[in-house]
C-alpha cells in the first residue's frame, strides 16, 4: 500500500470539502464544518435549505469518493439552519425572521412572500408566515383560508392557522379587512407586535414577514419592532418601481437590517398560449439596481397567469403543481435566500 491511512483520510477529507464547495459554489473554508466522517459513514449537515438537491449531492459525492482506497459506504444529508444575528432580542422558537418589503404597492410582495414560504418548506425547513400588511392583508386569500378563525387555549397566546404545512398569522383572521384599513400608525404597529408576540409559533427555521408596501414611518417603525435577520426587496423593472425600491434599501440600511437581495417580479411576460417571452416593462432594471447597491438579484420572475391564478385563488402553485417551472424557480429563490442568510451569519 502506497498511502498511510492518515494520508488517505486526509485526501478523503480534502475531496469531500472540494466537492461540497464546488457543488454549492461556496468558499472552501466554509464547508469544513458541514460534515462528519465516522468510519465509512459520511453525514453532511447543510446550514441552508436545499432538500431538492440532497439526492444529487449524494450521487455526486458517491461518484467522487468511489475512487478512494477506503470508499465511503453511507452518505446522509441533513439540514441544520443556524441563527442569524439581530439587533433586537430574538423571539424564542423562531430562528430567523425575513422581511419581504417593497417600495411600492402592487409589485407582488405578498405573492412572493407566500411562494417563497412554500418553496422553503419544499426545501426541507420549518416555515411560518406573518402578514404584516395590516392595511391590506392578502395572505388569507392567498392561502385559501379567509374564513379560518384562530383559537386560543389559554386566552393569552393564539394558535397560528395551518395551511398546507405552513403556519400563518394575519390580522385578516381577526378583523374584517375594511376595519383594519382605518387604523392609524400606532394601532397598526401595536397589531403587528401582537401578531408576532402573541401567536403560539412552533419551532421555526424561518418566519417570513410580508411587510406593508412603502417605506414611510409605519414601515420604519415595523422594521424596528421585530428582530429581522434579513430583508428582501421586491420590485418590478420599471424606473418608478426601482426608485421606490432604492428607498426600501435605504430604510433597511438605516435600521441596520442586512438586505439579502432583490427579487424582480413581472420581469417579462410569458404568453400562456405560445410560451413566447416578452419584456413588456423595461429590461435589466433589477440587475442595474442590484449592481449599484452590490446586492444579489435573487430571482427574476415572469408576469404569468399561473402565478396570478394560484395566488388569488388560494391554491398555492407549490402544492398543486410541484413540478411547474415557476414552482422550481421559487425553489431556486428559496435556496438562494437561505444560502444568502447563512453567508451573512458567517461573515458578520
Ligand atoms: N409574477 C406575477 N404574474 C402574474 N400576476 C402576479 C405576479 N405577481 C403578482 N401578481 C398578481 O398581482 C396582484 C398584486 O400582487 P400582490 O398582492 O402580491 O402585490 P403586493 O405588492 O403585495 O400588493 P400590496 O401593495 O397591495 O400589498 C395580485 O393579483 C397577484 O396575483
Automatic annotation (TrEMBL):
<dbReference type="InterPro" id="IPR027417">
    <property type="entry name" value="P-loop_NTPase"/>
</dbReference>
<dbReference type="GO" id="GO:0005524">
    <property type="term" value="F:ATP binding"/>
</dbReference>
<dbReference type="GO" id="GO:0140663">
    <property type="term" value="F:ATP-dependent FeS chaperone activity"/>
</dbReference>
<dbReference type="GO" id="GO:0016887">
    <property type="term" value="F:ATP hydrolysis activity"/>
</dbReference>
<protein>
    <recommendedName>
        <fullName>Iron-sulfur cluster carrier protein</fullName>
    </recommendedName>
</protein>
<keyword id="KW-0067">ATP-binding</keyword>
<dbReference type="InterPro" id="IPR019591">
    <property type="entry name" value="Mrp/NBP35_ATP-bd"/>
</dbReference>
<dbReference type="Pfam" id="PF10609">
    <property type="entry name" value="ParA"/>
</dbReference>
<dbReference type="GO" id="GO:0005829">
    <property type="term" value="C:cytosol"/>
</dbReference>
<feature type="binding site">
    <location>
        <begin position="103"/>
        <end position="110"/>
    </location>
    <ligand>
        <name>ATP</name>
    </ligand>
</feature>
<dbReference type="InterPro" id="IPR000808">
    <property type="entry name" value="Mrp-like_CS"/>
</dbReference>
<dbReference type="GO" id="GO:0016226">
    <property type="term" value="P:iron-sulfur cluster assembly"/>
</dbReference>
<dbReference type="InterPro" id="IPR044304">
    <property type="entry name" value="NUBPL-like"/>
</dbReference>
<keyword id="KW-0378">Hydrolase</keyword>
<comment type="function">
    <text>Binds and transfers iron-sulfur (Fe-S) clusters to target apoproteins. Can hydrolyze ATP.</text>
</comment>
<comment type="similarity">
    <text>Belongs to the Mrp/NBP35 ATP-binding proteins family.</text>
</comment>
<dbReference type="GO" id="GO:0051539">
    <property type="term" value="F:4 iron, 4 sulfur cluster binding"/>
</dbReference>
<dbReference type="InterPro" id="IPR033756">
    <property type="entry name" value="YlxH/NBP35"/>
</dbReference>
<keyword id="KW-0547">Nucleotide-binding</keyword>
<keyword id="KW-0408">Iron</keyword>
<keyword id="KW-0479">Metal-binding</keyword>
<dbReference type="GO" id="GO:0046872">
    <property type="term" value="F:metal ion binding"/>
</dbReference>
<comment type="subunit">
    <text>Homodimer.</text>
</comment>
<keyword id="KW-0411">Iron-sulfur</keyword>
Amino acid at each position: 500500500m502506497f498511502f498511510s491511512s492518515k494520508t488517505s483520510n486526509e485526501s478523503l477529507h480534502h475531496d469531500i470539502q472540494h466537492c461540497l464547495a464546488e457543488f454549492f459554489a461556496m468558499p472552501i473554508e466554509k464547508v469544513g464544518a458541514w460534515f462528519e466522517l465516522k468510519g465509512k459513514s459520511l453525514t453532511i449537515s447543510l446550514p441552508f435549505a436545499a432538500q431538492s438537491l440532497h439526492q444529487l449531492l449524494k450521487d455526486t459525492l458517491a461518484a467522487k469518493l468511489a475512487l478512494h482506497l477506503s470508499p465511503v459506504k453511507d452518505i446522509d444529508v441533513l439540514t441544520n439552519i443556524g441563527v442569524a444575528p439581530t439587533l433586537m432580542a430574538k423571539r424564542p422558537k423562531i430562528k430567523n425572521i425575513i422581511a419581504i418589503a417593497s417600495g411600492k404597492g402592487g409589485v407582488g410582495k405578498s405573492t412572493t412572500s407566500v411562494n417563497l414560504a412554500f418553496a422553503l418548506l419544499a426545501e426541507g425547513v420549518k416555515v411560518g408566515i406573518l402578514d404584516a400588511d395590516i392595511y391590506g392583508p392578502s395572505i388569507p386569500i392567498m392561502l385559501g383560508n379567509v374564513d379560518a378563525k384562530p383559537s386560543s387555549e389559554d386566552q393569552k397566546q393564539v394558535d397560528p392557522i395551518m395551511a398546507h404545512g405552513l403556519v400563518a398569522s394575519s390580522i385578516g383572521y381577526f378583523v374584517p379587512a375594511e376595519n383594519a384599513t382605518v387604523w392609524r400608525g400606532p394601532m397598526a404597529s401595536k397589531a403587528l407586535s401582537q401578531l408576532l408576540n402573541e401567536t403560539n409559533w412552533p419551532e421555526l427555521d424561518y418566519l417570513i414577514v410580508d411587510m406593508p408596501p412603502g417605506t414611510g414611518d409605519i414601515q420604519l417603525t415595523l422594521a424596528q419592532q421585530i428582530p429581522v435577520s434579513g430583508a428582501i426587496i421586491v420590485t418590478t423593472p420599471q424606473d418608478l418601481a426601482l426608485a421606490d425600491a432604492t428607498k426600501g434599501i435605504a430604510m433597511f440600511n438605516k435600521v441596520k437590517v442586512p438586505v439579502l437581495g432583490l427579487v424582480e417580479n413581472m420581469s417579462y411576460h410569458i404568453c400562456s398560449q405560445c410560451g413566447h417571452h416578452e419584456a413588456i416593462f423595461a429590461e435589466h432594471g433589477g440587475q442595474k439596481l442590484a449592481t449599484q447597491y452590490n446586492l444579489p438579484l435573487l430571482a427574476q420572475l415572469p408576469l404569468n397567469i399561473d402565478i396570478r391564478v394560484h395566488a388569488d385563488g388560494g391554491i398555492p402553485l407549490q402544492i398543486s403543481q410541484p413540478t411547474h417551472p415557476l414552482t422550481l424557480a421559487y425553489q431556486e429563490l428559496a435556496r438562494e435566500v437561505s444560502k444568502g442568510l447563512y453567508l451573512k451569519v458567517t461573515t458578520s
